[in-house]
Amino acid sequence: MDPIQVEYDQDEWEQDEWEHIEDLAAFENSNWKKFNDALKDHHYYLTCKLFPKYGLCTC
User: How far apart are the C-alpha atoms of 57 and 51, rounded to whole Å?
Assistant: First the structure.
């Protein structure tokens, strides 16, 4: 198979429109908040529960 050529603009994300949340209550139920909470929970589980169970240290 031939490799696929992909163009990448590292500054493209700066041109995207960001979702502006005016209401804090709306932010608490936003996808951004849910994703952030899930990411923190996943990190905690890996570093404090799973890795130590198998003798792995994440210092």
Answer: 7
Each residue's pLDDT tens digit, 5-56: 888 777 776 766 666 767 778 888 889 899 999 999 999 999 999 999 999 9
How far is 13 from 41, CA to CA, in rounded Å? 26
Structural domain for 55, as ranges: 31-59
Contact 31, 38 (CB under 8 A): no
Instruction: For residues 50 and 57, give the distance between their C-alpha atoms in angstroms, rounded to a whole number.
Output: 10
The domain tally of the chain equals 1
